[in-house]
Amino acid sequence: MSRDRQIHLAAHFPGADHTTVRADPRSGSQIDFSSFEHLARTAERGLFDFLFLAGNVRLREHKGRIHDLDVVGRPESLTVLSALAAVTEHLGLATTVDATFNEPFELARRLATLDHLSGGRAAWNVVASSGAFTGENFRRGGFLDHADRYTRAAEFVRTARELWDSWTPDGEPRPFAHRGRHFDIAGEFTVPRPPQGHPVVIQAGDCDEGREFAASTADVVFARHGTLEAGRAFYADVKRRLAKYGRRPDDLKIMSGVSVVLGDTVAEARRRAEKIRRQQVSPQTAILRLEQIWGVDLSAYDPDGPLPDIDPVPEPRFTRGRTRRGDTVAVAEKWRALAQEKGLSIRETVIEAGGRQSLVGTPGSVAAELEAFVRQDAADGFVLVPHLVPGGLDEFVDRVVPVLQERGVFRTAYEGRTLRTHLGLPEPA
């Protein structure tokens, strides 16, 4: 890795049951502003590029009810980020907003406002939904075909950028008109052009449509790959797609979601990691995960017993509002093979097979592994997903960031004020 190629870091405010450990006495509120502020200030102290908040527009259900371990009551994220803009100076502020159940004019206005309030630090993680389940909250159940979700999202982003570009360099609004398949709007945009030109666009889909959408439209990809080999394959595939859209490899940053567990020795770190994973995957959660794959009620099974010997339902309908795990029959067979090979129980199998990439070791070994991923083109950076809110990032910032700086692969000070500058992204024309 060349001296001028730096690792990019971001922080994710976790919220799903498979990430947070709320039984830990250090676990704080998921709604109090102090929790968001602590994590944001820690990320900025660590010179991270941005803080990333998830955002759901419907609570997820399992067997007709909200799962007990899911986070509920999370505040609206753009409002939270607007408040965080007042207590941070450099940290980018990113959130998920659905392109299916919003409209370009209103969302472009809110993102432009955040960009102005923060001095050019806004980012939008574009997601696309098509299901009637989510649509029921908007009286739009099933109105969008699944095949159209990315075409609408792409047109949504194009339209938002047209709105952001509609003001003159002298600060005067010009009339806009967009005529497309999904949007037919005209008028004058109410907010001057954002300081960044366009807020940074993030994308997280891993299917072929998602990869193409990232190559054509996104500035950052939030990837989830558990091995170096998988990361390198994804990195090469997405980067090679950029040329057809007239883009260079550096125009898109690929950042892999990771969790980190540290110890003074590798053995200590491994013991801590094992404890955390067992806290994340309770017996109740292990059965829920299994039911998501098998698609039938498995509440009578012992989490510490073997996997079911029954076949899974090919199209499970037990869980609503969660991303499907691909071909569930194939996943079940993979889990069975893993359990048989290692003699694992249900809970042990879920722990072994689930979760995102986790780096476990000393500060020095973790820093070396992060550098290796970037050096070998498996990522441009990482989105840190701590298991505790709000203090789960503190140890990484205090112990790993200084090592990365000593290795010359991470900044020692912010060199600009906008998120685009932090990420080394080109300014929009």
Offer a quick outline of the entry.
The chain is α/β, with parallel strands linked by helices and 429 residues long.
Q: Which structural traits does this protein have?
A:
globular; Diverse_substr_monoxygenases; flavoprotein; TIM Barrel; 8-stranded parallel β-barrel; 429 residues; 15 helices; 3-stranded antiparallel β-sheet; Luciferase-like_sf
Question: Would you write up a description of this structure?
Answer:
With 429 residues, this protein is an alpha/beta fold. It folds into two domains: 8-263 and 362-423, Luciferase-like domain (TIM Barrel, Alpha-Beta Barrel); 266-353, no CATH class. 37% of the residues lie in helices and 15% in strands. The protein has 15 helices and 14 strands. The protein has helices at residues 33-45, 77-84, 104-118, 132-135, 149-164, 208-217, 228-240, 266-280, 283-294, 328-342, 346-353, 363-375, 394-399, 401-406, 419-423; strands spanning 8-13, 50-53, 61-62, 65-66, 92-98, 122-127, 175-179, 184-188, 200-203, 220-223, 253-262, 319-320, 357-361, 381-384. It has an eight-stranded parallel barrel with strand order 1-2-5-6-9-10-11-14, surrounded by six helices. α5 packs parallel to α6, α9 (283-294) crosses α11 (346-353) and α10 (328-342) crosses α11 (346-353). The longest helix has 16 residues, at 149-164.
